[in-house]
């Protein structure tokens, strides 16, 4: 099977390669054509997933496809954007048709869940890696950025943290997908599109947590020129995590584990109670104050010293 047959069989003819009101031309030409709605801005984000860095190379290709798209669409959720389409740059060591079939099925399932369409890409030979670029749209001037947090805002997260990091040892042991519900958090993160959308016009800053809570909140603090305080006693431990780990390890996974793909955001105090009524998974975990940097404090307000803040490639 050659390059173009492969593209046709597994991607161009796939159920997720459809046109929608914002895509006037999809796979097959030199470029895809996007048609933004009036009074909107296009949100764009790219993520590369490298075998044995972001996922185990020997993992199930269906799960790899599912995870690759989820972590990329998560950036659209973090901006409050509505998904439109994505491109897929795939580098493969060889043509393995069984692998490609599983991969495209997993990709397609997640694309369906996120209402996003495959509209182009690139296929090359080399060490396994997956680069996905997502395109979404957001009402003009309303995107959730990292630079608007204000002193006295609340610091919140969209749901439980630490589960995917807690699953990593099982992932590396190649445990089957249905072995533990914890594995689902790693293999099939759910981009928080609904909460991202609900935060438009409310949150003062927002991002998705990929590297770890402390490291990523550090980006909000820096961009917004404020200090963020995380109150460890307010972090709610997921029942899935506490079933496997002692409290101390749970806290470590929550604070610096990464791979969560939940949103962290800041919001004025008076807007919180209305929001949590409609989105009960949201947790308040701290607050914004004047100053710089990020601190984690225990219930007496004493700083907890961490040996690392989150994942760094270099
Ligand atoms: N090689 C690059 N060239 C240009 N911009 C980059 C490059 N790598 C990362 N960026 C930009 O730097 C910012 C931070 O990147 P990153 O930490 O990967 O974001 P995220 O965690 O949201 O994926 C983003 O705005 C991203 O677009
Ligand atoms: C097999 C495997 N080992 C380790 C990890 C942990 N890990 C790898 S990269 C990463 C951080 C997120 O990746 P990055 O490329 O920084 O994503 P971005 O912040 O750009 O979205 C984490 C927690 C993993 N996901 N899979
Ligand atoms: Mg990135």
TrEMBL record:
| Pfam families cross-referenced by the UniProt entry | AIRS
Question: Would you tell me the protein name for this molecule?
Answer: Thiamine-monophosphate kinase
GO terms for biological process? thiamine biosynthetic process; thiamine diphosphate biosynthetic process
Residues the entry annotates as binding Mg(2+) 3: 30, 75, 208
**Binding-site residues for ATP, renumbered to this chain:** 121-122, 146, 210
Which parts of the sequence bind substrate?
Answer: 54, 259, 311
Enzyme Commission (EC) number: 2.7.4.16
Which superkingdom, per the lineage?
Bacteria
Q: Binding of Mg(2+) 1: at which residues?
A: 46-47, 122
Which residues bind Mg(2+) 4 per the record? 30, 45, 75
Give the species: Entomomonas moraniae
Sites where the protein binds Mg(2+) 5:
211
Q: Which GO terms describe its molecular function?
A: ATP binding; magnesium ion binding; thiamine-phosphate kinase activity
Q: Which UniProt keywords apply?
A: ATP-binding, Kinase, Magnesium, Metal-binding, Nucleotide-binding, Thiamine biosynthesis, Transferase
Job description of the protein: Catalyzes the ATP-dependent phosphorylation of thiamine-monophosphate (TMP) to form thiamine-pyrophosphate (TPP), the active form of vitamin B1.
List positions binding Mg(2+) 2: 47, 75
**What pathway, per the record?**
Cofactor biosynthesis; thiamine diphosphate biosynthesis; thiamine diphosphate from thiamine phosphate: step 1/1
Q: Where is the PurM-like N-terminal domain?
A: 28-138
Note from the entry: Reaction mechanism of ThiL seems to utilize a direct, inline transfer of the gamma-phosphate of ATP to TMP rather than a phosphorylated enzyme intermediate.
Q: Could you tell me which InterPro entries the record lists for this protein?
A: PurM-like_C_sf (IPR036676), PurM-like_N (IPR016188), PurM-like_N_sf (IPR036921), ThiL-like (IPR006283)
Q: CDD domains per the record?
A: ThiL (cd02194)
């Amino acid at each position: 099977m050659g390059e173009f047959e492969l593209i046709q069989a597994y991607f161009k003819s796939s159920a997720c390669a459809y046109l929608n009101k914002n895509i006037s031309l999809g796979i097959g030409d030199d470029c895809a054509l996007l048609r933004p709605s009036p009074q909107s801005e296009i949100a764009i984000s790219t993520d590369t997933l490298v075998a044995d860095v972001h996922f185990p190379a020997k993992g199930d290709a269906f799960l790899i496809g599912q995870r690759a798209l989820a972590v990329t669409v998560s950036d659209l959720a973090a901006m409050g954007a509505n998904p439109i389409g994505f491109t897929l740059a795939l580098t493969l060591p060889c043509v393995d048709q069984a692998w490609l079939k599983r991969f495209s099925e997993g990709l397609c399932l997640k694309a369906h869940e996120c209402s996003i369409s495959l509209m182009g890409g690139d296929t090359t030979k080399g060490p396994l890696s997956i680069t996905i670029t997502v395109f979404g749209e957001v009402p003009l001037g309303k995107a959730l950025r990292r630079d608007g947090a204000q002193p006295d805002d609340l610091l919140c997260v969209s749901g439980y943290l630490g589960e995917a990091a807690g699953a990593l040892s099982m992932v590396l042991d190649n445990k089957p997908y249905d072995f533990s519900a914890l594995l689902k958090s790693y293999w099939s993160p759910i981009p928080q599109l609904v909460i991202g959308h609900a935060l438009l016009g409310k949150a003062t800053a927002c991002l998705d947590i990929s590297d770890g809570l402390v490291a990523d909140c550090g980006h909000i603090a820096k961009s917004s020129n404020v200090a963020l305080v995380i109150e460890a006693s307010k972090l709610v431990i997921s029942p899935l995590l506490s079933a496997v780990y002692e409290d101390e390890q749970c806290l470590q996974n929550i604070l610096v584990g990464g791979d969560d793909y939940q949103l962290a955001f800041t919001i004025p105090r008076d807007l919180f109670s209305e929001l949590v009524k409609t989105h009960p998974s949201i947790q308040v975990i701290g607050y914004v104050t004047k100053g710089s940097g990020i601190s984690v404090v225990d219930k007496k307000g004493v700083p907890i010293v961490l040996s690392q803040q989150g994942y760094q490639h270099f």
